[in-house]
Amino acid sequence: MTYVITQNCCNDATCADVCPAACIHPTPDEPGYASTEMLYIDPARCIDCGACEEACPVDAVYAADVLPASMSAYSSINADYYRDDRPVSLPTPALPRPQRTTHRTPLRVAIVGAGPSGFYAAERLLSETDSAVQVSMFDRLPTPFGLVRAGVAPDHTHTKKITDVFSWTAARSNFHTFYNVEIGRHLSHAELARHHHAVIYTVGALSDRRLGIPGEDLPGSHAAAEFVAWYNGHPDYRERRFDFGHRRAVVIGNGNVGLDIARILLMGVERLRHTDIADHALEQLAHSKIEEVVLLGRRGPAQAAYTTPELLAFAHLDDIDVLTDPVTRTGDDLNDTPARKSRALSEVLAANRGGTKQLTLRFLSAPTEILGTDRVERLRIAHNRMIEREGTPSAEPTGRIEDIETGLVLRAVGFRGQPIPEIPFDTRSGTIPNEHGRVLDPSTGQPLPGVYTAGWIKRGPSGVIGTNRSCAAETVDRLLEDFDSGRLTDPARSPRELTELLDTRQPHRIDRAQWQRIDEFERAAGRATGRPQVKLTSTDEMLTIAHERTADRG
Fold this sequence. Notes:
Largest sheet: 7 strands, mixed
Shape: globular
Number of helices: 19
Number of strands: 22
Strand content: 15-25%
Distance between the termini: 54 Å
Helix content: 25-40%
């Protein structure tokens, strides 16, 4: 018997770390890791020890003989990765970690941003047992977990289990929580730096990229980031309204976010009632008239931005058919990602059961204008064809134009970061300029002492949740090098002085105990209604629960 990695894979490579046979690839130190859709177990080398299943934080690993029928394809997907012509690293002896310097002063680090990259950075720091480390985590929201809470689709329950790992980190005695505190408003970067040896910015990339076409700002045209935050209960977006009174919606961009949006629009509220979708979203979607979602991609099916596992999930949504133009295979080598995507698309198309709703995948279609008098009425697209340029497939217009009737357009063409006061920012890439996590001074090109970054704000919106683990590790290792070499200045102020300053600036900050009260309240509401949790979406409501219940304890 062997083990199999399935759809839920978060790519954080914890499974590869514990595998004694080194049969899980690609690992973070292999070239394919940055672009892989998921990790794969080599059935020929698996020794059936079960270590990967136990270590997986999102329940993505199954023994092959108990693989659910809906995931049966993953046996061949894992095996297909290991063709004879694919080089695979053999186990190598673990190298000893460099000897750390012992310091009289504990290393104090502030992490700004309580999403996955922030927690992975914190765990990397706190697992250093040869030097005392204190971590203070800040987030402008009253709740942690970033895009796991506000970005992962409500029906991806297994993916959200990664927060259990983060909760273990937060429970450490040398981890301190400062939620509902905004850097640049309640504290400046300079003030934060005076209380810590180093500051790591892990604030993500939550703004949308623009299309730059006429009509983009018409009512009925929305950024995907706005819609996703709305249905996930982000406090900043709870008052948004979307028009679901039309038969067809169009999503521009065919990545995983586009597929998430399509599922939410098409699944129906009876299925959504069993998820943690925001109540206000559930109420509005209950009156939706949408029967078709058109997903646009400017290139062909082999170049689609979605991952194979996310597309395959549609084969098991009984009431939703997936339609498209005839698929052209890109080759016979199933070890090649485009070929795997084409095969997955063929399987999904073959699984149609005459559903009442449909997802229409429109490839080789580029938006050129959103049309309407007072609101969105049509989307104009230009048809493309694929050509080879210097060995690379690219899309070029054919000259044929088509209008698609729709009342709702959602733009899922990517995310970008936003500037942070006092911190360098590259407006072109939407990231903080850095070298392996060390933030660079734009005027000199040299690292700014004590300033670091990790996650999407460091590298751009690439990878999945687990990709942030290796990204954060790279940053933390550079920070530790700087600390050991004496390049970091000891804090001028004590932790107690930081607390006293925040007592004045932000008395409504949320500590770990208060966050636990919010979490317990949401989970209890979920148990009462048969859901994982019922999210609070108002900051005022969260503060009331946090502070009243904390006061009751005392």
